[in-house]
Design a protein that fits this description.
By secondary structure, this protein is α/β, with parallel strands linked by helices. The chain is 43% helix and 14% strand. It is built from 10 helices and 11 strands. The strands form 4 sheets. A 5-stranded antiparallel beta sheet has the order 1-2-9-10-11, with helices on one face. Strand 9 and strand 10 form a beta hairpin.
Length: 335
Amino acid sequence: MGERGSVGILFVAVLFVLAALSACVMLYVGRALDYGRRVEAREALRLRLYAAVRGTIDELAADATPESDGPRDRVWSTLGELEGGVSLGLSDLSSRLNANYTPAELLEKTELRSLLSPSASPEALAAYREEKGLSTELGHYAGLLREDALDSWSCFGWANVNVADLSSLRALYRSLTGNEDGASAFSLQVGAARSAKRLVAAGSLEAFLGSSYPELYPVICAEAPYNANFSSAFLIRAILSFPRFGIPDPAARAEAVIAAREDHDLSEPELAVLLGASSGGEALQYLGVRTWFWIVRAEAEGHAYSAIVAAWPRATSGEGAKSRRLAVVQASFDP
């Protein structure tokens, strides 16, 4: 009886152990299944957000208004609250003051200087770029840009060979080609063109850049970086007030541009007229009517998928107006 009792107790103990193990296994399986369902749901949401962003990019590429980019383009009607609780937004990312390429002179002689940190100067920003290089992250310029004005700055944009900071152009050339001597020669070439007040047109960019063109384009181009249809009124007023442009009554012309865009999307010929046929040439190297970098963002259920999209500037004078090349240069899915 003692042995049978011992066996019985042992049997019950084994049952308890097996039951406990079974409960642990079931708990693990349950958690694994739950985790798997969460992963599947997260991936399904990511794909749904990606599809919404992709649709906006396709609409941008279709470019129903090849003469300009403006807030009345069809793409804006596709944004907002979509089915399934998805919120879709689009922002012009390149029509803000570019921290990488803005020359010190423009900052020094206009109200744009107020966008720098009180402890910084235009010369300090230029020296910092020379020493530390360029970046696509505003954080790279921490301490130099006014913290409460960061929305006025961007690090995304192409460098216009006619107006971008000369040392920035030299750094780009060196980075893109790996040729230090070529970078120095290029800097001298650009400096000579500016001294002669000779603007490089989009159609002659390839000839100007020579054999390095395939490596330098589109980062170095001949297009105005800022879209007057989206740039802040502050930026437009400051650019037109730049003394070197010699624009008669720049304040009135700036207000005319701002008023016109409230009524309709500006075209390139109209913008030229508003700036003055004889005085707007160099100013038109800063202000244009195309956007070069967009950020598209879709949100739902506490998650977001965003993509930064680049539009290629014209490569040659013979390129059709409807040619539009876009590419996603950065994308992220935020948990």
